[in-house]
Write a structure and sequence with these properties.
This protein has helices at 2-10, 25-39, 70-81, and strands at residues 12-19, 42-49, 57-61, 64-67. The protein is α+β, with helices and mostly antiparallel strands.
Length: 83
Amino acid sequence: MFELRKSEHEGAIDVTVESAFDVKPAEQRALAAALSAKLGREIRLTSVTDPELVGGVRIRAGDLVIDGSIQGRLQQLAHELGI
C-alpha cells in the first residue's frame, strides 16, 4: 500500500507487459514512451513472458488492462459465439 501511494505521489505507475515472446529493450523503451504520453505519468515497465498468449501483448497499468493478445481475441470470439 505504501509503494502504491508513493508511486501516485511521484507521478509514476508500474506497468506489466505480458508477451508470448521476449520484448526487446528498444521495444520496451518505445512502449514506455507511448504509455507515458497516454497516461501522463512516468512508467516503470516490467516484462513477463507467457507462451499461452500465443502472440501479441497484454498490458496492465494499475486497473487499466489493454489486451492485444491472440489468446484474448480468441476468448472474446468464443464469448461472442456463445462457446
